[in-house]
Amino acid sequence: MRPGSPVPVVIRTISERVQADAATMSRLRMAGVAPGARVTVETGSGVVTLIGPDGVRSDLSAGTAEAVHVQVL
């Protein structure tokens, strides 16, 4: 992915490491990010933004984002 370019994806899985982090999971749920959801991904300098179906954004560190597995559409 090129930094800053929005990319449509489907969330496939969220690792147990991320699932164990209640604060992160709460932010992802608020954005509508869950397995099977179609979202948009934007990457920046060390930050990955997931934009849910309703436009709600959730910023993740690059390390945390690596544990959210997606399929590019």
UniProtKB/TrEMBL annotation:
Lineage, uppermost ranks: Bacteria, Bacillati, Actinomycetota, Actinomycetes, Micrococcales
Source species: Flexivirga endophytica
Record carries keyword Repressor: yes
InterPro entries hit by this protein: DtxR/IdeR_SH3, FeoA_core_dom, Transcriptional_repressor_C
Positions of the Diphteria toxin repressor/Iron-dependent repressor IdeR SH3 domain: 4-71
UniProt keyword annotations, A-Z: Cytoplasm, Iron, Repressor
Official protein name in the record: Diphteria toxin repressor/Iron-dependent repressor IdeR SH3 domain-containing protein
A Pfam entry, by short name: DtxR
